[in-house]
Request: fold
Amino acid sequence: MSLASESTARQGFRAADLALVGSGAAFLVVCSLVAVPIGPSGAPITLQTFAVLMLGAVLGSRKGALAVLLYLAVGFAGLPVFAEGTGGPATFAKVTLGYLLAFPVGAWLTGFVVERLGARAGSRAGARRPALRRTVGLGAVVLLGSVLGTVVIYAVGVPVLAARLGMSLAEGLAINMAFLPVDLLKIALVTMVAPAVHRAFPDLLNRPAAMG
Amino acid sequence: MIELHAAGVSVPGTSGDTGRVLLDPVSCTLAERRIAVIGANGSGKSTLARMVNGLRPATTGRVVTCGLDVARHGAAVRSRVGFVFTDPDAQLVMPTALEDVALSLRRTVQDRAERDDRARLVLARIGLAEHAGTPVHALSGGQKQLLALAGVLATGPEVLVCDEPTTLLDLRWRRVVDGLLEEVDAQLLLVTHDLDAARRADRVLLVDEGRVVADGDPVATVERYVDMMALR
Amino acid sequence: MIELHAAGVSVPGTSGDTGRVLLDPVSCTLAERRIAVIGANGSGKSTLARMVNGLRPATTGRVVTCGLDVARHGAAVRSRVGFVFTDPDAQLVMPTALEDVALSLRRTVQDRAERDDRARLVLARIGLAEHAGTPVHALSGGQKQLLALAGVLATGPEVLVCDEPTTLLDLRWRRVVDGLLEEVDAQLLLVTHDLDAARRADRVLLVDEGRVVADGDPVATVERYVDMMALR
Amino acid sequence: MSPGPSLLGLYRPGSTVVHRAPLRLRMAVLGLFGVGVVVLRGPGPAIVAVLLAVLTAAVARLPLAATLRGLRPVLLTAAVVLAYQTWQRGWPVGVEVSGDLVALVVAGTVVTATTPTDVLLDGLSRAVRPLHRFGVPPEGFALAVALMLRTVPAIGDLFTEVRDAARARGLERSPRAQLVPFAVRAVGRSRAVGEALAARGIGD
Ligand SMILES: Nc1ncnc2c1ncn2[C@@H]1O[C@H](COP(=O)(O)OP(=O)(O)OP(=O)(O)O)[C@@H](O)[C@H]1O
Ligand SMILES: Nc1ncnc2c1ncn2[C@@H]1O[C@H](COP(=O)(O)OP(=O)(O)OP(=O)(O)O)[C@@H](O)[C@H]1O
Ligand SMILES: O=C(O)CCCC[C@@H]1SC[C@@H]2NC(=O)N[C@@H]21
Ligand SMILES: [Mg+2]
Ligand SMILES: [Mg+2]
Reply:
């Protein structure tokens, strides 16, 4: 294929990336609307991490992180897209600031793991394997990626939470424990859904990097 | 003006299978004002239509639209070729009707206020003036398709490709959209299952199983299609 | 058998506005084998169809389908009523064609290998045998619609509600689907803009602005609809 | 799900001194205030900070009821933290921590409420323009924001549709039968949007 036609294709991808990133951010917004306050620590249970991990696992590291950054940008700019209808510069004062700032990193890491290990699980070793086995392989990779993504979100979120509440790290961790069951459930859902999406769109991650 | 020089599309085989030809190489020069493309489901009509503006790049041969090689000048071609999809929902990308039309005008009209005024005019022309500020999401299917068409026409395209633009609409909206397409001041390539609309074209291409199997006089080609389908 | 007892649907007003009636209460017993529902866009056809299996619960009155009160036994009703949506994308649940059909068979066929074989048969009957492993989104619009229908028929429903199931189909597949619907061993409630199909039904309901304005003889009711639309 | 007023932003129009101050100044003061609150320890500064923040809010004429409603979760948190810390570490710590929390949020709310969202977004748009060099298309940010706003209600619709379809097939409560098609369709829709953008010559 000629160079020229490749450049056409790449320009097509720019618009495609833009659409995926914009829609991804919208998905995260919708998932933020679902918030259940638990205890008054100021950090509710939300579907945000589900969205963040999904974006990484489905869109890959770069687009996944960009979608989350877009979400943060409109949130800090004043649209009430964060948990419990908050937004704007006031967000910098939220006790959950650490979680929020870690979201793009979590999406990136999840996507990175899926990209690096998923290609192998999904195609090379699995080329001759039945679809189901291939999915199981990719499922394991998505599981690993989303566990790591969650750990990163905790790693930043918990210390900031503790600091904001004037507590020790141990106390912060204790508060965070309340999220663990739900967050594990979210990881399980991502593990179930993301591989199916890749089966439906086998070229989602294999596409050459665009916009660059 | 659309020129196809042995242009075809195939998808490479993934692990295991050998790939597929979606559209056999076809050569022709489409210069008529209204051209219809008909054919069975899955025959390759949409593939052909998308090849014209490079949305689906030809994998063999060459496509020249408005005098430009699509493979080399994709962006320039797309700025001269309007494309209307079957489902208007995905095609409307801005939150409100006015913004969506204004987005199309961005290239040609620099000044923001003037752009909004022009967009308002366009909306008025298609009878959606009062919906300027309406969220796109709240419009009906027919209104969305009109708006999609308006957004495309606002750019003054030389060629307009429509992939079954009225399939999802009811009688009334179908008439409205058909009427608008009738008047349009651009070369029209219309993919359609509506055989009456096809008969009104100047030239009809019949696609079957990835091949252009007939090309020419509307009435005769449509008849051939009907006969062909009756035999299956 | 579908019984409507003064069943209607309205949406409550949000802060400010007063709400809307989407479907005025209607009473009738639909026992004919083939019933068509026609009417303009936004008239309330889909609302009526969805009420039958409780997807859109009646807000007044009662709906009894297959002898079961829909409000009380929604899940049981839905397992006996097949529903085909206009937009096949909405209804195709699994990533590939074969998996989607197999999902429908899960209730009736326990063994996995047998299920896959049966699903392959279903695909063959609608001409999609070679697309068993194709990602659903890569199928053409018409192919998707066929697949959606096949998935529903595979469950062996007692009542089949189809909300404009042939909009994306070409002549031949429209005939195939019409044939499938003709043969199907279930009561059929068909929402359609295809007036020929409506004329072939045993009974036609005409919906306009949220009201069932005519109900009875197919040819007469269709004619009334055509006259009504011509005046607008 | 409707786009609803909830996405209209938290801006409260007005023409007070605070509203008229340049955005940069407001942001700078907010930043300094934040640093001050964190650096100055003890209950005294915390109380002063709260008073300062509330005073600014009053000068900016923020509507009391609406503002309190928005602050309710934070105030609740502050109250619990006050109680917990007083019990664990004594009242000075309790007052300091909860006071800092409230002061920062109120100050932030003042800036949020006095700055129209589109001004902030325009500012951001300009700020990311130099990223052009790294392949982020000019105007890409503004477009992505618009696309996001357009997609929020569409996602709600998509979810309803998918849930209905799953229920119509008798899959009443299967998360798999609801989430998988939802995700697949969301990606499919994004692709269609991407194609439409390309066809309209946007992003080229
Ligand atoms: N990426 C792909 N991989 C494999 N097959 C594909 C791919 N994209 C399209 N096809 C197949 O190519 C054929 C032509 O598709 P196309 O969309 O052009 O049909 P169409 O004539 O527009 O049909 P319809 O009237 O149903 O819209 C179909 O059989 C479709 O399944
Ligand atoms: N949740 C809702 N709130 C308010 N209005 C609604 C809601 N759902 C549907 N409607 C309105 O109810 C009316 C009837 O809708 P319905 O989908 O039943 O029409 P239809 O006859 O099926 O139209 P079409 O031919 O376009 O499919 C429409 O005007 C629609 O806009
Ligand atoms: O204020 C925000 O918008 C962010 C809220 C963060 C909530 C965190 S994310 C990890 C953990 N899991 C949850 O369900 N909630 C918390
Ligand atoms: Mg097509
Ligand atoms: Mg309908």
